[in-house]
Amino acid sequence: MAIITLTTDLGDKDIYQAALKGSILKLLPSVNIVDITNSVAAYNIQQAAFILKNSFYYFPEDTVHLIGIDTVYNEETRYLAIRYKKHYFVGADNGIFSLMFDTEPDEIFELNIMQDLKFLHFPLADIFVKAACHLANNGKLSEIGLRVDEIEKKMNLQPVIEKNLIKGAVIYIDSFQNVITNITKDFFTSVQQGRRFLLSFKRNETINHLSWHYNEVPEGEKLCLFGISDHLEIAINKGNASGLLGLNLGDTVVIDFQDQ
Questions:
Q1: From CA 217, how far away is CA 60, in angstroms rounded?
Q2: How far apart are CA 51 and CA 102, in angstroms?
Q3: Contact status, residue 176 vs residue 166, Cβ threshold 8 Å
């Protein structure tokens, strides 16, 4: 069965999500629609990119991922359909693809699908749906657009190395209030080289041990681990790390590696 996933900022209180799903089912009644999330903060392409980047590869090959973030009509914004790592992505060329992809896409096409006049303010339910359904129904990219060479580039905030330090930042806070940083496991390991470390952040809080799971420490105690996204995460076992530790998006975390 064909799969179309949704990653949007439409929420679940208005008609927009229903209109989007209904439009898909009208064109492709047999498709399996999967919500990755419809609760991205309005226009927040960084948040959407993090969620989709760390979830799309769990789906079967040829899944179509429809991205509904900052898609309102703009003469300067292109709408793209992209093939990347055997998956399809449909969305606005507003920088989100460059934030998601670690390598260049395999194919990039600018959509040239005719838009229904009644949907000018809501291209998600028109252009994006037509493209997603076409691809989910085994259609070719070349039949819905013109090949282009580049995507709009935006840069993720990167951690910095200073002598024996890594300076990173909080890039995501999940629904459990776990705090996720921009320090990946590979990056951490390459700098650590087996050394002990001290992780420090707001309020002079420190952690000096990597945990394998949340229950490795008593309830209410803080810990750090590499979560499902392979990013360094600060958490409290069955607690609200963001609120209790005062950590918010953009806050700095520092790892000090100590020689044996």
A1: 36
A2: 14
A3: no
